[in-house]
Amino acid sequence: MGELVMAAKITHVPSIWLSIQPGKHFGIRKPAEAALEEIGRRARERGADTFLVADTHWMNSIGFHLNGKERHSASYVSHELPHFIHDLEYDYAGDPELAELVREEIAAGGQKVRVHTYKDLGLEYATLVPMYFMNGDSSIRVLPIGCNIYSTIEENRRIGEALLRAVRRSDRKVAFLASGSLSHAFPPNEIAESLLNDVSSEINRQVDMAVLDMWAEGRTADFVDMLPDYNRRCTGEGAMADTAMLFGLLGWRDYTGKGEQLCPYFGSSGTGQVVVDFPIPTEIA
Fold first, then answer.
1. What pTM does this model have?
2. Per DSSP, what are the bridge partners of residue 148?
């Protein structure tokens, strides 16, 4: 029987990649770098053999999709911000077996789902940036699931529940990563560069901070009740599908675990970012 050994909300912003490149922005995301490295260390300590990543930059418009290739190997350049992320070489083992179990469980729940193995289907940077810091030796398999930008919070709650069922049916020790921002409102072009290290709205900042308080205090029921509004009003990245999957997997309103924040909250090009590790309840581990 498989085991869920980690469930974390993580950042993937391109400025983290910029932070390790020579130049004027070198080191600007050191706390986030360290937090991602710590997630990787904890995953290994807990015996994880697969990173299951809800990737908000693999944006789907119809149904739910998994990249079930045997191996992910290529060079990546961001189509969104090619001057931030380019020439990122990667080579990770995939997990087609777990992908098929996930497909079966999502389909059993009545939702449309496909597993893909096309040779030119690469990884997106919401997977690649975290993997650079977490999985430097490529020893842990990587299985991305896309985020449907037209999906509802309720749909993604059910996806999270299906992910847990699939993990339990497997022989894997899985670290689940919800790779996406908190608030996600980009500033206008005219001021975008001035907000490299800031959030675009004080309202978004305050709501993000309230969310972090809820997570730290284990007030999950309050949080998931407001999640649809949070997604709509604070311009959720990828429909906040990754976050809904995360809490669906953890037990939704019944989850009372207290999230451990591993880096200070920070703004990046107008968006709110953080890394939080959520304890796994013994009844679902």
1. 0.98
2. 60
